[in-house]
Amino acid sequence: MKKYIIGNWKMNPSTFAEADRLASRIQMLNRGSAEVVLCPPVYFLAQLSKKFPQLFWGAQDCFWEASGAYTGEISSEYIRTHGAAFVLLGHSERRMYLEESDEMVAKKLRHVLKRKLTPVLCVGGGEGLREPEQCLAAARIQLTTAVRGIPGKILAGGRIIIAYEPTWAIGTGRPATSKHIAAAASLIREQISSHYGTIIADGTPVLYGGSVNASIVPKLKKKSNLQGYLVGGASLNALEFSKIIELS
Ligand code: PEP
Predict the structure, then answer these.
(1) Which CATH number covers residue 17?
(2) Residues 113-131 pLDDT 10s
(3) Low-confidence ranges of the chain (pLDDT < 70)
(4) Which of 62, 90, 133, 185 is the most core-located residue (most Cβ within 10 A)?
(5) Whole-prediction pTM value?
């Protein structure tokens, strides 16, 4: 299965010149066989994807309707026609600060799949989730709610990427343990398998996100059944990001 290293730049950097510099450094890296996807702030997406077509691009969110009176929202049409093929959905910061619910994420997921974009569904994060076990339990519910009613044939062949991102590990410098991540990856696969069977489960890439840095990658590579990483802070540092790619 393909490996994905996805950089979530969040609301950084603050100027286009800095974003341009960072993308240009990342573009020069030896990316091996990994699919490196960058998710910059959406207002930089058009220019960056045009200037660096060798990289894969993604958006950090997408609304569930194609167009209409939805102030401030981002349409799938904009994302698709501005060089992006991937969309993060249900990121824990959106769940926490914007009260994005499992049902909202489910609507977004359906829409994004219909528009032939690849969703990166983030699970395990949200308000009040402080303990590892809570994040696992939340991941199970979030995943089930998101995919409910979607026919298996739509999700076959890696059409959806799942990123396990426990709240307490995001942006804290404290990644989850490899044991916890391996347990989460198994839980996610079992959950998909229980809905859709093992072929679809085995074909679905599962990533980990939460304070990923180059030093934890070798350990995770040995111990967990992952197909890559969703990287926040470290994706803003081309050198650290390059090491993550190299070691993955
Ligand atoms: C993220 O925002 O998806 C993330 C994992 O952030 P960080 O790597 O900074 O914890």
Answers:
(1) 3.20.20.70
(2) 999 999 999 999 998 888 8
(3) none
(4) 90
(5) 0.96
